[in-house]
Design brief:
The protein is α+β, with helices and mostly antiparallel strands. It has 2 domains: 78 residues, N-terminal domain of TfIIb (Single Sheet), CATH 2.20.25; 60 residues, no CATH class. 34% of the residues lie in helices and 19% in strands. It contains 4 helices and 6 strands, in the order ββββββαααα. The chain has a 6-stranded antiparallel β-sheet with strand order 1-2-3-4-5-6, with no helix packed on it. Strand 2 and strand 3 form a beta hairpin. The longest helix has 16 residues. This is FLYWCH-type domain-containing protein.
Length: 170
């Protein structure tokens, strides 16, 4: 058991809408919630068994984590929190501007990230995350119809319904 001196962490939501935390640029998923209300989080790297126990918003115990925040099982860190927020802002922009090209939105927000942070080296290149961004866009918007016969027009918008409304007004 060890306690890391800087015990700040950030809660995030994964792309699958699961709760997770970022601690020292390592990602942890919720393993279990104990009866006393404390939560045990485990590193998301498949070979790492590092854990963090949190109670009432504070880290009370860590396991297999060195004092500097690195894990006993050496593996690369995941995305930093500011990079994660950049990708989340790209997804928000996709929701706000459904017709804009995803690559254009990516370029705009990475340039903004570069201005604020000095470098965008930590942001994954577009080719690496484009499939997840396009998948996110398709999950937010209805699919484009393949043919006219697949379009479902509500009854209230049909010619017959509009004619009856028009005749009722006149």
């Amino acid at each position: 058991m060890s306690i890391v001196s800087d015990n700040t962490f950030s809660e995030i939501t994964t792309q699958f809408d699961n709760k997770a935390i970022v601690f020292k640029n390592y990602h942890f998923g919720l393993r279990r919630t104990k009866k006393d209300g404390s939560q045990v989080w485990i590193c998301t790297h498949k070979l790492c068994n590092s854990t963090i126990t949190i109670h009432e918003g504070a880290i009370i115990k860590t396991s297999l984590i060195k004092a500097d925040g690195n894990h006993e099982f050496e593996h690369p860190q995941k995305m930093a929190l500011n990079v994660y927020e950049c990708i989340t802002s790209i997804k928000r922009k996709i929701e706000e501007e459904p017709t804009a090209p995803v690559s254009l939105l990516y370029d705009q927000l990475v340039k903004k990230f570069r201005k604020e942070n000095g470098s965008a080296a930590a942001v994954p290149v577009f080719d690496r995350i484009k499939s997840s961004l396009y998948e996110y866009r398709s999950s937010q918007h209805p699919p484009i119809p393949k043919s006219l016969s697949t379009i479902d027009v509500p009854e209230r918008l049909t010619t017959f319904a509009l004619l009856s409304i028009y005749q009722g007004v006149c």
